[in-house]
Design goal:
By secondary structure, this protein is of the alpha/beta class. It has one domain: TIM Barrel. The chain contains 13 helices and 11 strands. It is globular. The relative contact order is 0.13.
Length: about 325
């Protein structure tokens, strides 16, 4: 009855349909759970099923996987409609000039269907690997966010100007002309942030979109309110920051089975065990109704979109079940 009521409320209030995307299982290839061609086939299935977007994660050493730009280029050649994004790209691991050219090339190949989701990586679980990841790329772990800030500014200039002169604390260019330019000159860059005040301010000041994860609907609402306040303070001209929730989920009528399946998957994915309390915070695990209810609450908190990460050793089955049992509600 509660589920029916929620659906009626959405209909009566004419709430906007959320944009739903799927995180593709690129790490699972390294874990031996999926072949590279299966990832590409899954991307094609995501498009056939009518989803808005397909996303690829990133990590060099901490959570190794297929390279995101190479993989997205292959997917771009096999699809024609879905938006292609990174959730999220650890941009500071890369040379900004090479990355700007590579992304512009991807944007051209995909006919302007890209979103560069970027972040700084986390050290909450295996910090030593995250620190090593940046060390081998020549970036101090403590400086990775400031490097990313400068990269965003520099890449935007490289994409929109013929001659770029830039001087920051970490990056600089003198009379540099980079080609090709992206098809979409305002190539969108979305920033990942959850509850950190500093990170939320960066979203307001630098980003075209916001990706949040590991937050409750209440925390999402509070963070979104802060971003909007900071955006006004900064005088940003960005009309819409596309608040998006990166959501872990596992669908099973038996909640305990869903939690156990998620625990098994996430231990392999992050090389760390998590408590049931932590898992419940990460996302909804259980029945289709439980998944949809969490999405409803997050939409009410301000979310306009979702990036779904199936916490399962069988992501294709989870995708099919979500499509059949949850997607029709939205």
């Amino acid at each position: 009855m509660e589920r029916i009521y929620i659906r009626l409320v959405r209909h009566q209030e004419k709430l906007a349909k959320p944009k739903i995307g799927i995180l593709l299982p690129s790490r699972e290839v390294v874990l031996g759970l999926m072949a590279p061609n299966e990832v590409l086939q899954l991307a094609q299935q995501v498009e056939r099923l009518g989803y808005e977007s397909a996303w690829i994660g990133d990590s060099l050493l901490a959570k190794p996987r297929l390279d995101p730009l190479t993989t997205l280029s292959a997917i771009a050649a096999l699809t024609s409609k879905i938006t292609l994004g990174t959730a999220v790209l650890l941009a500071a691991l890369r040379n900004p000039f090479l990355l700007a050219q590579q992304w512009a090339t991807l944007d051209r190949i995909s006919s302007g269907r890209t979103i560069m989701g970027v972040g700084i990586g986390g050290g909450r679980y295996t910090r030593e690997l995250f620190e090593k990841e940046f060390a081998v790329a020549g970036v101090k772990y403590s400086q990775r966010m400031r490097v990313l800030e400068e990269m965003i500014k520099l890449m935007r200039e490289l994409w929109t100007q013929d001659r770029v002169n830039y001087k920051g604390q970490f990056l600089e260019s003198e009379d540099v002309s980079l080609n090709p330019k992206p098809l979409n000159s305002s190539c969108p860059i979305w920033l990942s942030a959850s509850v950190s005040e500093t990170a939320l301010r960066r979203v307001a000041q630098l980003a075209d979109g916001w990706i949040a994860n590991i937050v409750t609907p209440e925390e999402f609402a509070e963070s979104w309110r802060k971003i909007q306040d900071y955006t006004k303070e900064s005088g940003s001209v960005t009309p819409n920051l596309h608040p998006t929730f990166y959501m872990y989920l596992n669908i099973d009528d038996d909640e305990q089975k869903a939690l156990a399946s998620s625990d098994l998957f996430l231990e392999k994915y992050y090389n760390t065990r998590f408590s049931s309390e932590t898992l419940r915070r990460w996302g909804p695990f259980g029945s289709a109704n439980r998944i949809a209810d969490r999405m409803d609450k997050t939409i009410s908190a301000g979310a306009e979109g979702f990036i779904l990460h199936f916490a399962s050793l069988e992501p294709r089955k989870q995708l099919e079940r979500f499509t059949r049992e949850v997607l029709p509600s939205f």
